[in-house]
Amino acid sequence: MSGGRATGREITVLTGNAEVLADNFLLRADRIEIHGNDNRFIEGFGNVIGHEIEKDIFFRTDRLSYDRTLRIARLEGNSTLEDRGNEVIARARFIEFDDVNEIAVLQVSVRLFSDDLMCRAEFAVYDRIQQTLVLSGFPVVHRNDDEFRADRIMVDLNTNDIVMEGDVRGSIRN
Fold this sequence. Notes:
Blueprint: E1 2-4, E2 11-22, E3 25-35, E4 41-52, E5 57-67, E6 72-83, E7 88-98, E8 103-114, E9 117-127, E10 132-136, E11 140-143, E12 146-149, E13 152-156, E14 161-165, E15 169-171
Antiparallel strand pairs: 1-2, 2-3, 3-4, 4-5, 5-6, 6-7, 7-8, 8-9, 9-10, 9-11, 10-13, 11-12, 12-15, 13-14
């Protein structure tokens, strides 16, 4: 562990299997940096694994930034968010999770798995409370043997209902 202190630039650095518990947020990484007024910002680098304990959300990423005041986590690189309470697994190159509003924004190579659904797009918004998913950027949804494509696809994860907008295509095998 190391640290540095200069007026307005306080920082604590933890290295080698570092672990931090802040609020309901457990973080493990090769390197963790804590800085800002009242240790507002936590950043994890390398083999980042975390758990939002209260909501039972796990994540894995290359790099994470967490703002303890706004309660927003940003995952960068190969990132996975697993919402065990709702049985949803999401993967993307960039994920931003707003812990207060329980909304995740996923960007680049988005994949989402839930029950018999497999969704893919370049951009998605997952609303954990409403249990909805909005996909855009060449979205494709596979449900069992059926395939749905459109400019924009909305999915109700409670009912597996799918609403498509724009250039709609697909195949229904059942």
